[in-house]
Specification:
The complex is a heterodimer.
Chain A (H helix, E strand, L loop, with lengths): L6 E3 L4 H11 L3 E4 L5 H6 L7 E4 L9 E4 L2 E5 L4 H6 L1 H6 L1 H8 L4 H6 L2 H6 L7 H8 L2 E6 L2 E6 L4 E3 L2 E2 L6 E8 L4 E9 L9 E9 L5 E9 L6 E2 L1 H7 L6 H14 L10 H24 L1
Parallel strand pairs in A: 1-3, 2-3
Antiparallel strand pairs in A: 4-5, 5-10, 6-7, 6-10, 8-9, 11-12, 12-13, 13-14
Helix pairs in contact in A: 9-10, 10-11
Chain B lengths: L20 H5 L15 E7 L5 E7 L1 H4 L4 E6 H6 L4 E3 L5 E3 L5 E2 L5 E7 L2 H10 L1 E6 L27 E8 L1 H10 L2 E12 L8 E7 L4 E6 L4 H12 L6 E4 L15 H13 L3 E4 L2 H7 L2 E13 L5 E11 L28 E9 L6 E3 L7 H19 L3 H8 L8 E2 L5 E2 L4 H12 L1 H13 L3 E10 L11 E2 L2 E2 L2 E7 L5 E5 L8 H13 L6 E5 L16 H28 L6 E4 L2 E4 L2 E7 H10 L10 E6 L8 E10 L6 E11 L6 H20 L4 E2 L5 E2 L17 E5 L17 H18 L13 H10 L5
Parallel strand pairs in B: 1-14, 12-13, 15-18, 16-17, 25-26, 32-35
Antiparallel strand pairs in B: 1-7, 2-6, 2-8, 3-7, 4-5, 9-17, 10-15, 11-12, 11-14, 15-16, 19-20, 21-31, 22-23, 24-25, 24-30, 27-28, 28-29, 31-32, 33-34
The chains are: A alpha+beta, B alpha+beta.
Chain lengths: 289, 784
């Protein structure tokens, strides 16, 4: 398991990193946690000419509440999310997600930013961020720009990030007090990619109606899927058994899985329906607390 | 009964902590990849991307131009030296490097040698092979079709048929079936799986051009046999070959065959006069080295209306891949598969197996199993459940009714085995009691009424291990004895060397415990060495749970030889006759005068300082032990599962394992072996399959898709035991390593089938993934 040869660069600052990216363009890959990239390089499925290791760049590793947003630095490790009190108490959906990503060893290095920027529909955070309506902060030579998460995933392994941009922050709006979310994943064993996964976040208004509902699907299509039809079925209404069943049914229609070793497409479609249903009940429980 | 020694002596029955673990825990183990020699270079195999293709040309020029590359060896190069093919362990031959054509994806095509691993990897990519694809044969059921491509034109027989093997009385069995009021059958595939030891295979081959000696550090479960084969095939005098198996990180049968990579490393070292290291990657290990199982089986049982079994008939198609690289005793092309009558009293039985070639990796090795015993045990334990459903009787009751009774041992089976001892009902009753079987059945009934799915699966297996008696058992002609040499030093400390080789079984602890038991020398005073053919006595190695039954016998007998000499010395020292002496572990004393005694340490010192007249100095013995029979461990496993109707996911709620392996040397190590084997069984039952698509592309060829269970997936194992010693083994032991792997797959599968049995489900092929369960639930209209 030896990768093809590559150049290794280690910038000490964000500006330096962006300058390197501008110079090497799409010949270069950002090395963050490396938990997806390095295996792909070892299999020689990915052969970047140049790796830009951003791990020594200061001030990119944080979880904080600011200006009505939860802000997660681009270099924040999954394990930090898993063990953050702020996340655990305010965003159980993110705790759910981090907890089922790969295994402990991987989570110690893997970053939330990398999990998104890799553009892999099998990764878990994309669905969660879609459910949360997160925003991606991309930093490039012209400074920062905000990419709404729904516009971020373009195609398999392809995101809206430009070759000279780095994902530096994830912002999650914190509006509404009666919020609840959940992430459910069926996997063949711990450490596996999802056979299917569903992220659900609901915000209830004072009357208990659904103010907004976000639903993201993992590994059931060429990109992470925002189940907008299912979201629409819930918005503005009371949560009811019938409403949840209808949303789950719609979510399963929005899934576009293919058959593989994890199971036939029809199974994955059924899983989306079942997991959406279960996640909605769990999110509802949490929102009511 | 085995006499209990003191904890200081630490003989049999003491849970002595594993002596080898300190170095492993401190990172001081010494595995093949830890071997670094001056001027060592590195090999990398070039492998075929196709399952079946002609090789039109191999161009090595670009590869040779990579800086640091020293050689690129091709099949044609080997052919010139007569080494393009090598014999397998089972009357077939296998390409070392392909000539003419390739027969499976990942087959070895060329061997690049370079100064660094990195240069070797880069150059391997640059070896240009021009292939022309040929029709691919994947499904063994089509191997004998008229239009199937003939995979092995090198053979005289122009057919994909390798062997037909049958045992038992075909006619009498057929007659029993005709007369029986009840007939049942099950068709079951024991899927192709892989032992997947955590350390992959590899070697360092070092041919010294000055001494003309070849030293090979090898991931070998059978270093002596491998030395002999290197000598016979390579033409190097056997005294000039030294095979060293250093620490081995798991074998499970995967490290019994000789692989092309080993041969290439040896050839490269001969060619370059430098040490050559070759260590395969995980994918190479899974895709090209010895797989296990791939048995496509059908079992029929004839019985009386009350469930008394009358006959068993088994037909099996065995997929051996491109070369028959099965590692099993010469007289047994289907291994010990004829153990398939299991724990039950079948008056008649007939079993036949046909082996075929396909475009898949070669093998058919014994994965933690005495040569196809796992397949046999799985089949009979599944078939008994199917019969129970047909008769609408409880599977535990059906088994209890048909067990061979304790007073019927030694028991001759209709397929030719002589079971040494057993008490099957005792083990089963104990397991049923621990499980709370009746309450579980009641719970299941209540849950069914509520629409919930819960299943209870039983497996009451009989194993056959310890190959084996020389009159019947040999591998490549080498009789399957094993050996032990013990030397007692003047200060009463000792070293023992064996023909076996631990891969994690704990030999450095358990064999000294046997010596401690026999001689009373504290276990901490005994060093154990294995794996170096220059120092250890000849033996056939460690696999098939044979170390304790065979080498353990040798250890015990060698110890007793020493004790007999010690008795003479003690008599001399105490000035009494030998008959006046009594032994207790650690000393001889004069009958009726226990204070007049000589310890084994005093006797050892005297063996070098104060020898009786006419006696040779020293206190040593060696024994080559030929077991009179195999040993037959057994047990009952009970698995309880709950099924999620929404997702098809299976949760193993409980697993009870009652094992009987005769007298136990180290209870802690036995329990560890059982935990490990049960985890493997769970992986096989629910997760593991090396499959191929229609083009022969291997699926499940890395750990992303070939799944190894972790602590998260495995339940809490509830282990217990009964003890029925082997009557013929010197210390009454039977061997245990493979029991949990042999016995558990049926328990897992039986539990899942049981959960769905009220829906008419009678069988589900492994691995039982969630999606399979969900599909059944959907088909039956009960999916949530």
């Amino acid at each position: 398991m030896i990768p093809a040869s590559f150049e290794y660069l280690r910038p000490g600052s964000l500006n330096e990193a962006i300058a390197m990216l501008s110079e090497h363009g799409d010949e270069a890959k950002i090395l963050s946690g490396g938990q997806s990239l390095i295996p792909m390089m070892k299999f020689r499925l990915s052969r970047p000419a140049c790796l830009i290791d951003i791990n020594r760049i200061p001030n990119l590793d944080y979880i904080k509440e600011e200006d009505g947003y939860l802000k997660i630095g681009g270099l924040t490790r999954e394990t930090a999310l898993e063990h953050s009190d702020l996340i655990r108490s305010r965003f159980p959906i993110l705790h759910d997600t981090s907890f089922v990503i790969a295994d402990v060893q991987v989570r110690n290095l893997a970053t939330v930013g990398g999990n998104l920027a890799h553009g892999d529909p099998a990764n878990d955070h994309p669905a969660t961020m879609l459910a949360l309506d997160a925003e991606i902060v991309a930093t490039g030579p012209q400074g920062e720009r905000i990419i709404p998460i729904k516009d971020f995933f373009v195609a398999i392994f392809t995101t809206a990030l430009r070759p000279e941009e780095i994902l530096t922050e994830i912002r999650i709006p914190m509006n509404g007090s009666r919020r609840g979310g959940a992430y459910l994943k069926v996997e063949r064993k711990v450490g596996d990619y999802a056979t299917a996964g569903v992220a659900v976040q609901v915000t209830l208004n004072d009357r208990g109606d659904v103010q907004r509902a976000g639903i993201g699907l993992t590994n059931v299509g060429p990109t992470p899927i925002k189940a907008t039809g299912a979201e629409g079925a819930l918005a503005g209404k009371q949560l009811t058994d019938e409403g949840i069943a209808e949303a789950a049914r719609r979510a399963s229609e929005e899934a576009q899985p293919s058959s593989d070793l994890r199971g036939p497409a029809e199974y994955k479609t059924a899983l989306v329906q079942e997991l959406t249903r279960r996640a909605l009940y769990r999110a509802w429980e949490r929102a009511k607390k | 009964m085995i006499q209990q020694t003191s904890p200081e002596i630490g003989g049999m029955g003491h849970s002595v902590k594993r002596k080898e673990d300190r170095r492993f825990l401190l990172g001081k183990g010494n595995y093949v990849d830890d071997i670094h020699l001056p001027h060592m270079v590195y090999g990398q195999l070039v492998r075929s991307p196709f399952a079946h293709a002609l090789i039109k040309s191999v161009n090595t020029e670009a590869a040779m131009r990579v800086p640091g590359v020293l050689a690129v060896i091709t099949g044609e190069d080997l052919a010139k030296a007569g080494l393009a093919w090598m014999p397998t362990l089972f009357f077939d031959k296998q390409m070392v490097l392909a000539t003419g054509k390739v027969l499976f994806q990942s087959q070895e095509v060329a061997f690049v040698v370079a100064e660094t691993r990195f240069a070797a990897a880069d150059a391997a990519e640059l070896v240009e092979v021009d292939y022309e694809e040929l029709p691919v044969l994947v499904d063994p059921h089509h191997a004998l079709d008229a239009d199937a491509p003939i995979l092995r034109p090198d053979r005289e027989e122009k057919s994909n048929h390798i062997f037909h093997w049958e045992v038992g009385d075909r006619a009498a069995t057929a007659k029993a079936f005709e007369k029986a009021p009840v007939r049942t059958e099950v068709t079951a595939v024991f899927q192709r799986c892989h032992p997947a030891p955590l350390e992959t295979c590899g070697c360092v081959a070092d041919f010294n051009t000055a001494t003309e000696r070849l030293t090979v550090w090898l991931t070998s479960q059978a270093p002596h046999a491998h030395r002999t084969l290197f000598a016979l095939v390579g033409g190097i005098p056997e005294n000039n070959i030294r095979v060293i198996s250093p620490d081995i990180g798991g074998g499970f049968g995967n490290k019994v065959p000789i692989y092309p990579g080993y041969v290439c490393a040896v050839v490269a070292s001969l060619k370059l006069g430098r040490p050559v290291k070759w260590v395969e990657t995980r994918s190479e290990n899974l895709q090209s080295t010895g797989f296990a199982r791939d048995y496509h089986m059908r079992a029929e049982i004839a019985s009386e209306s009350d469930g008394t079994v009358k006959a068993l008939r088994v037909q099996t198609l065995a997929d051996h891949g491109a070369f028959n690289a099965a590692a099993q005793p010469t007289k047994f092309p289907a291994g010990l598969f004829s153990i398939c009558t299991g724990s039950y009293k079948f008056p008649n039985a007939f079993c036949e197996v046909d082996g075929v070639y396909t475009n898949k990796a070669p093998g058919g090795i014994a994965y933690r199993c005495s040569f196809r015993v796992t397949e046999a045990s799985y089949l009979i334990e599944r078939a008994m459940d199917v019969l129970a459903y047909q008769l609408n009787t409880d599977p535990a009751e059906l088994r209890l009714k048909n067990f061979i009774r304790p007073d019927e041992f030694p028991y001759e089976t209709p397929l030719g085995w002589s079971y040494d001892s057993g008490n099957y009902a005792a083990a089963m009753n104990k397991a049923l009691e621990i499980a709370g079987y009746r309450e579980l059945r009641k719970e299941q009934e209540e849950k069914r009424r509520r629409g919930e799915l819960m299943g209870i699966g039983l497996s009451s297996f009989t194993e056959v291990v310890g190959a084996g008696p020389a009159h019947t058992f040999d591998i490549a002609g080498l009789k399957m004895f094993d050996s032990c040499e013990i030397r007692i030093h003047p200060t009463g400390k000792a070293i023992a060397r064996l023909g076996t080789k631990s891969q994690g079984q704990g030999h450095e602890t358990t064999f000294p415990q046997i010596i401690a038991q026999e001689l009373g020398i504290p276990v901490s005073d005994i060093t154990l060495e294995e794996g170096d053919t220059d120092t250890a006595p000849y033996g056939l190695g460690t696999y098939a749970s044979r170390s304790t039954p065979v080498a353990g016998g040798a250890t015990s007998v060698a110890s007793r030889k020493i004790r007999e000499k010690a008795r003479k010395i003690a008599a001399h020292l105490l000035e009494v006759s030998e008959e006046d002496l009594e032994w207790e572990p650690g000393k001889f004393f004069v009958k009726g005068a226990p204070s007049k005694a000589k310890t084994i340490q005093e006797i050892a010192f005297a063996a070098y300082t104060n020898i009786p007249p006419g006696m040779e100095a020293g206190l040593e013995a060696v024994d080559y032990y030929d077991p009179p029979n195999l040993t037959f461990p057994f047990g009952t496993y009970i698995c309880v599962v709950d099924i999620d109707k929404g997702t098809g996911e299976i949760k193993v709620r409980r697993f009870i394992a009652v094992d009987d392996c005769g007298n136990i040397i180290n209870p802690m190590i036995v329990e560890g072996q059982i935990h490990g084997g049960l985890a493997e069984g769970l992986g096989i039952a629910f997760m593991q399959l090396i499959s191929y698509d229609e083009s022969g592309n291997v699926q499940g060829g890395n750990f992303m898709d070939y799944l190894l269970p972790t602590a998260v997936e495995t339940p809490y194992w509830e282990t217990d035991k009964t003890c029925t010693p082997s009557p013929h083994h010197p210390i009454g032991a039977k061997g245990v390593g493979e029991s949990p792997n042999v016995g558990s797959p049926a328990a897992f599968v039986n539990a899942v089938v049981d959960a769905l049995s009220h829906l008419g489900v009678r069988h589900i092929d492994m691995p039982i993934a969630s999606w399979k369960v969900w599909q059944i639930l959907k088909e039956k209209g009960v999916a949530a």
